[in-house]
Amino acid sequence: MTDVAVAIRDLEVHYPLGRRLFGTAPVLRAVAGVTLDIPRGAFFGLVGESGSGKTTLGRAALGVAPVSVGQIRVTDSQGEVFDVARLDRETERRFRRRAQLIFQDPYTALSPRMTVRDIIAEPLELMKLCKTRDEANARVREIAAKCRLNVEYLRRFPHAFSGGQRQRISIARALVTNPDFIVADESVAALDVSIQADILNLLKQLQRDLGLTFLFISHDLSVVAHTCDHVAVMYLGRIVETAPPRRLFATPRHPYTRALISAIPSLDPENRARAERLTGEIPSPVNPPSGCTFHTRCPMARDRCRVEAPQLRVMADGHLAACHFSEELAPPGTTEPRSSQGAQ
Ligand code: SF4
To answer: Residue 80 in 3-state DSSP?
Structure first.
């Protein structure tokens, strides 16, 4: 049986929008019923457009976004189970040590007034994890070396470093407390492409060497495909498809995934000509469409889609999709979907 590090059940995250004197106040449903298992040691990708709810899901898994409905359980490598929505002060202190976030933007995430040594050491000091300054320094040097940072530079300030080096500092800060579970939220999006590959390789190596479990959040399916063991695709607060990346690319079973794959830039003019374009904006999570929430943009939508919400169904081992007509989809870039609009 697979050892599950993060178990999410029927998760909903709601944000009430203001007050109304009469009637109920509108509610933004950022996450709308997500069930997900992240195996221990996995590099688990979560993709979707901006506004799909992926960042909120990652933050809920770290206990920094409110859980309105459902449950998140994180089990650390020593067997302690954290019920993330219901942490008391003492349990929260232990949880913060075991679950960490790597920020998106290495230019704004680091205080310009602190040295690299102090930035990395700060979580140790806030959580009182080292008895002496020498002990903290030794741990900072150890984790800096693991993140391929030159320890000679620990006395410098962040402005002296490039984007890739700053992201290494952010990673070292996240790992200094010896966590098990890392949420990396668009952690390479702000970097040049050549540096992205370098940071992704570093994250993969750290995952292997330290036995970390990653939730890797990205809007870029091509980045996720080359990095992750398993991928979940989110649309308007829901998981619409989940599969190992090779399978997801070869046989996507949701029209949204198919469109995301098709939109990956290609040097081949034929592929560019065949690319499917998603039309329209992602709808507001305050007032989502009825039935399948993708029906307002879906080229295969039919009457049934407007009234009946599809559930995640098993397509193959480890491959689930939430579409009434998944079986009709051909691989992207080959032929048109085998359906005809307006049928049924
Ligand atoms: Fe498109 Fe209908 Fe499938 Fe939704 S259920 S993705 S609208 S075909």
So the answer is: coil
Reported pTM: 0.89
Q: Is the CB of 255 under 6 A from ligand 1?
A: yes
For ligand 1, whether the C-beta of 292 sits within 6 Å is yes
284-287 — which CB contacts under 8 Å span 24+ positions?
285/28, 285/29, 285/30, 285/32, 285/51, 285/53, 285/236, 285/237, 286/17, 286/26, 286/27, 286/28, 286/29, 287/26
In a domain, 284, yes or no: yes
Residues in CB range of 1: below 8 A, 6 or more apart: none
Residues 280 and 206 in one domain: no
Residue having the nearest C-alpha atom to atom 3 of ligand 1:
323
Q: Decide: 305 in ligand 1 pocket, CB within 6 A.
A: yes
142 and 31 within one domain: yes
pLDDT mean across residues, the chain: 89
> Is there a domain that residue 335 lies in?
no
Domain limits at 138? 4-235
